[in-house]
Fold this protein.
Amino acid sequence: MHASPETLAAIRQLRAEKKFVEEGLYPGAPDEDTRLRCEANVNRFLDEFVALLARDASKEQLLACAKAMLDSFAEEDTEEREETDTYIGEVMRAVGIEDWTDFI
């Protein structure tokens, strides 16, 4: 898949945001260490995702990257795992993959 400049800008903007803070129904990470660890994990995913896009990765490769990120949150609390879905969803929508949950 090829990423447009708008797509890359949206991912860069997400990368720059502070993550796992209280927002909507999400209460925020239980402590700053957890927030920083989770944020670093999501940012790593975003970097890998952009690198895949730069190589015109297939939809399957992008989904595999997202699945690996989700799997890395297996030991986190439910709230952080669910918040991770939000970040993945933003990235997937940015590249035009609306049905990503059907494949992960």
